[in-house]
Sequence to fold (137 residues):
Amino acid sequence: MVMAIEVFNPDGLPKPDSYRQVAVASGSRLVFLAGQVARDADGAQIGNGDLSAQSAQALRNVVIAVESVGGSFADVAKLTVYVVDWSLDKMSSIEAGFARVSEELGIDTRKAMTMLGVVTLAEPDILVEIDAVAVLD
Fold:
Protein backbone atom coordinates (compact mmCIF):
# COMPACT_ATOMS: atom_id res chain seq x y z
CA MET A 1 0.00 0.00 0.00
CA VAL A 2 1.34 3.45 -0.91
CA MET A 3 1.11 5.96 1.92
CA ALA A 4 -0.42 9.38 1.30
CA ILE A 5 2.47 11.03 3.17
CA GLU A 6 6.20 10.72 2.49
CA VAL A 7 8.48 12.51 4.97
CA PHE A 8 12.22 12.93 4.50
CA ASN A 9 15.30 15.10 4.99
CA PRO A 10 16.59 16.15 1.55
CA ASP A 11 20.25 16.56 0.68
CA GLY A 12 21.42 20.11 1.25
CA LEU A 13 19.43 20.59 4.49
CA PRO A 14 20.25 19.54 8.05
CA LYS A 15 19.09 16.03 8.93
CA PRO A 16 17.54 16.26 12.40
CA ASP A 17 16.72 13.07 14.31
CA SER A 18 13.46 14.26 15.88
CA TYR A 19 11.63 15.60 12.82
CA ARG A 20 11.74 15.72 9.03
CA GLN A 21 12.27 18.76 6.82
CA VAL A 22 9.77 17.85 4.08
CA ALA A 23 6.40 16.12 3.83
CA VAL A 24 4.95 15.27 0.43
CA ALA A 25 1.22 14.56 0.42
CA SER A 26 -0.36 12.54 -2.38
CA GLY A 27 -3.76 11.90 -0.81
CA SER A 28 -7.00 13.63 -1.68
CA ARG A 29 -8.65 14.40 1.67
CA LEU A 30 -7.15 17.12 3.88
CA VAL A 31 -7.74 17.03 7.63
CA PHE A 32 -6.96 20.08 9.75
CA LEU A 33 -6.90 19.46 13.49
CA ALA A 34 -7.48 22.06 16.15
CA GLY A 35 -4.68 22.46 18.64
CA GLN A 36 -4.61 19.51 21.03
CA VAL A 37 -3.65 19.93 24.66
CA ALA A 38 -3.11 17.72 27.70
CA ARG A 39 -6.75 16.99 28.51
CA ASP A 40 -8.44 13.61 28.58
CA ALA A 41 -11.88 12.86 27.11
CA ASP A 42 -13.56 14.24 30.24
CA GLY A 43 -11.57 17.48 30.05
CA ALA A 44 -9.36 16.64 33.03
CA GLN A 45 -5.80 17.93 32.85
CA ILE A 46 -3.01 15.41 32.41
CA GLY A 47 0.51 16.21 33.65
CA ASN A 48 0.04 19.38 35.69
CA GLY A 49 3.32 21.30 35.40
CA ASP A 50 5.02 18.42 33.55
CA LEU A 51 5.98 19.39 29.97
CA SER A 52 6.90 15.82 29.00
CA ALA A 53 3.58 14.38 30.23
CA GLN A 54 1.63 17.20 28.59
CA SER A 55 3.48 16.72 25.29
CA ALA A 56 2.68 13.01 25.36
CA GLN A 57 -1.03 13.57 26.06
CA ALA A 58 -1.37 16.29 23.43
CA LEU A 59 0.22 13.95 20.87
CA ARG A 60 -2.07 11.08 21.93
CA ASN A 61 -5.00 13.43 21.34
CA VAL A 62 -3.71 14.18 17.83
CA VAL A 63 -3.68 10.43 17.16
CA ILE A 64 -7.24 10.06 18.49
CA ALA A 65 -8.45 12.96 16.34
CA VAL A 66 -6.88 11.56 13.15
CA GLU A 67 -8.22 8.09 13.87
CA SER A 68 -11.72 9.56 14.37
CA VAL A 69 -11.84 10.38 10.63
CA GLY A 70 -10.51 7.02 9.49
CA GLY A 71 -6.82 7.91 9.36
CA SER A 72 -3.75 7.04 11.34
CA PHE A 73 -0.76 9.00 12.59
CA ALA A 74 1.05 7.89 9.42
CA ASP A 75 -1.34 10.22 7.55
CA VAL A 76 -0.12 13.29 9.47
CA ALA A 77 1.88 15.53 7.15
CA LYS A 78 2.80 18.35 9.54
CA LEU A 79 2.77 19.17 13.22
CA THR A 80 2.97 22.61 14.79
CA VAL A 81 4.00 22.59 18.44
CA TYR A 82 3.38 25.66 20.59
CA VAL A 83 5.40 25.78 23.83
CA VAL A 84 4.88 28.30 26.63
CA ASP A 85 8.05 30.22 27.51
CA TRP A 86 10.13 28.24 25.03
CA SER A 87 13.81 27.69 25.72
CA LEU A 88 16.13 25.10 24.23
CA ASP A 89 16.33 23.17 27.51
CA LYS A 90 12.63 22.27 27.09
CA MET A 91 13.35 20.27 23.92
CA SER A 92 14.40 17.17 25.85
CA SER A 93 11.06 17.11 27.73
CA ILE A 94 9.10 17.37 24.50
CA GLU A 95 11.21 14.68 22.85
CA ALA A 96 10.71 12.43 25.89
CA GLY A 97 6.93 12.85 25.65
CA PHE A 98 6.96 12.08 21.93
CA ALA A 99 9.22 9.06 22.50
CA ARG A 100 6.81 7.73 25.13
CA VAL A 101 3.89 7.90 22.69
CA SER A 102 6.00 6.48 19.86
CA GLU A 103 6.84 3.43 21.96
CA GLU A 104 3.33 3.13 23.42
CA LEU A 105 1.52 3.25 20.07
CA GLY A 106 4.23 1.95 17.73
CA ILE A 107 4.26 5.11 15.61
CA ASP A 108 6.99 7.19 14.03
CA THR A 109 6.55 10.71 15.41
CA ARG A 110 9.12 12.28 13.07
CA LYS A 111 7.07 14.56 10.83
CA ALA A 112 7.59 17.90 9.18
CA MET A 113 7.35 20.09 12.26
CA THR A 114 7.41 23.69 13.39
CA MET A 115 8.02 24.51 17.05
CA LEU A 116 6.99 27.93 18.31
CA GLY A 117 7.55 29.62 21.64
CA VAL A 118 4.50 31.49 22.91
CA VAL A 119 3.87 33.67 25.94
CA THR A 120 0.74 31.78 26.94
CA LEU A 121 -1.90 29.41 25.63
CA ALA A 122 -5.69 29.46 26.10
CA GLU A 123 -5.56 28.17 29.68
CA PRO A 124 -2.93 28.99 32.32
CA ASP A 125 -2.11 25.34 33.15
CA ILE A 126 -1.42 24.32 29.55
CA LEU A 127 2.30 24.20 28.68
CA VAL A 128 2.09 22.81 25.13
CA GLU A 129 -0.42 22.61 22.28
CA ILE A 130 -0.05 20.59 19.08
CA ASP A 131 -1.98 21.08 15.89
CA ALA A 132 -1.71 18.93 12.80
CA VAL A 133 -2.53 18.60 9.14
CA ALA A 134 -3.21 15.13 7.78
CA VAL A 135 -3.82 13.85 4.27
CA LEU A 136 -5.93 10.77 3.66
CA ASP A 137 -6.51 8.84 0.44
